[in-house]
Amino acid sequence: MVEPLPHVREIPPYVPGKPPVARAGLTTYKLSSNENPYPPLPSVRATAEQAVTAMNRYPDMGCSALYDALATKHGVGTDQLAAGTGSVALIYHLLSAYCGPGDEVVHAWRSFEAYPIAITAAGATGVKVPVTADGRHDLPAMAAATTERTKVVLLCTPNNPTGPALTHAETTAFIAGVPADVLVVVDEAYVEFVRMADPVDGLALLRDHPNVVLLRTFSKAYGLAGLRVGYAVAAPEVATALRAVALPFGVSSVAQAAAVASLAAEDELLARVDALVVERDRLVAGIAAVGWTVPEPQGNFVWFDLPQTDAFAAAAGEAGLAVRPFAGEGVRVSVGEPEATDRLVEVLRGMKRPT
Ligand code: PMP
């Protein structure tokens, strides 16, 4: 047998959110993958279907229409952009371009479960810094964990799965203390859902610090999770490195077309995000009304920090809700349809609160 490299055996599994189990007479809801519950916009769908007609051709490897639209949106050069098969691909690209055996990557934990997977796959070593009791990044501890071996620091804001987001002030102060030869990745997968005082202004960070890399995705606010398209905004030298290591033709023609059409329909899509934020607020109020507490949610999900994760998931499942348990640590529930919110609150009302 040919063996994979030893570190490949160490790669932790990615546990995808499960679909709901059908229940007779009950509409079920998938709240397990932080997806956008709205169906595709007709304009986006029509553009994607048009792109399907050319499926015998390779996509535009230079993603030119997408880069043009993103450069306009963000006020950056097209040479500052690198697209990939979801923003998770950009995490792989970053780590493969900048890290190898012996290098360390500092990140909060619990955070996005793909981080330790991608770090281990790159042959690097992850340094997990526990989040605070209220689910926030412990930036002083992350600064202390950054050593001469550190190549990359991953910041996740809002943090998946715990929910809170970083402020601009604390992020600026953190980056000021990180050596300029360490990349600071700001994973903004849920940025469109943030409603807080002093939110991170990623582009301002990037203007002041060329070692900052912003990660964005079309999977959440833009509702294109199934098409797999995300991107990085970075200094031109970093974007060049990311494009160099990327899988050739990684972003399909359909994904590129749908992403461009989504940017053209941004107002409509962001109005849906506003509606989801209203739903998030209603969910938070409902959770508080039945005596539970969650860390401040700034994404499209809430986090229940409790050890009885299987019991919670089973109770939600009985009510037709698929949620995402992280065994023994907590349960993440995506914000979705109003009926799903009402059912979740009823589930909580019927459950024993953790003491
Ligand atoms: N970053 C974070 C924090 C996420 O939660 C996710 C998706 N769950 C991603 C990145 C990756 O999203 P995608 O690959 O769909 O763009």
Automatic annotation (TrEMBL):
<keyword id="KW-0808">Transferase</keyword>
<keyword id="KW-0663">Pyridoxal phosphate</keyword>
<dbReference type="GO" id="GO:0000105">
    <property type="term" value="P:L-histidine biosynthetic process"/>
</dbReference>
<protein>
    <recommendedName>
        <fullName>Aromatic amino acid aminotransferase</fullName>
        <ecNumber>2.6.1.57</ecNumber>
    </recommendedName>
</protein>
<dbReference type="InterPro" id="IPR005861">
    <property type="entry name" value="HisP_aminotrans"/>
</dbReference>
<dbReference type="InterPro" id="IPR015424">
    <property type="entry name" value="PyrdxlP-dep_Trfase"/>
</dbReference>
<dbReference type="InterPro" id="IPR015421">
    <property type="entry name" value="PyrdxlP-dep_Trfase_major"/>
</dbReference>
<dbReference type="InterPro" id="IPR050106">
    <property type="entry name" value="HistidinolP_aminotransfase"/>
</dbReference>
<dbReference type="Pfam" id="PF00155">
    <property type="entry name" value="Aminotran_1_2"/>
</dbReference>
<dbReference type="GO" id="GO:0008793">
    <property type="term" value="F:aromatic-amino-acid transaminase activity"/>
</dbReference>
<dbReference type="InterPro" id="IPR024892">
    <property type="entry name" value="ArAT"/>
</dbReference>
<dbReference type="InterPro" id="IPR015422">
    <property type="entry name" value="PyrdxlP-dep_Trfase_small"/>
</dbReference>
<feature type="modified residue" description="N6-(pyridoxal phosphate)lysine">
    <location>
        <position position="220"/>
    </location>
</feature>
<feature type="domain" description="Aminotransferase class I/classII large">
    <location>
        <begin position="30"/>
        <end position="348"/>
    </location>
</feature>
<comment type="similarity">
    <text>Belongs to the class-II pyridoxal-phosphate-dependent aminotransferase family.</text>
</comment>
<dbReference type="InterPro" id="IPR001917">
    <property type="entry name" value="Aminotrans_II_pyridoxalP_BS"/>
</dbReference>
<comment type="subunit">
    <text>Homodimer.</text>
</comment>
<dbReference type="GO" id="GO:0004400">
    <property type="term" value="F:histidinol-phosphate transaminase activity"/>
</dbReference>
<dbReference type="InterPro" id="IPR004839">
    <property type="entry name" value="Aminotransferase_I/II_large"/>
</dbReference>
<keyword id="KW-0032">Aminotransferase</keyword>
<comment type="function">
    <text>Aminotransferase that catalyzes the conversion of aromatic amino acids and 2-oxoglutarate into corresponding aromatic oxo acids and L-glutamate.</text>
</comment>
<dbReference type="GO" id="GO:0030170">
    <property type="term" value="F:pyridoxal phosphate binding"/>
</dbReference>
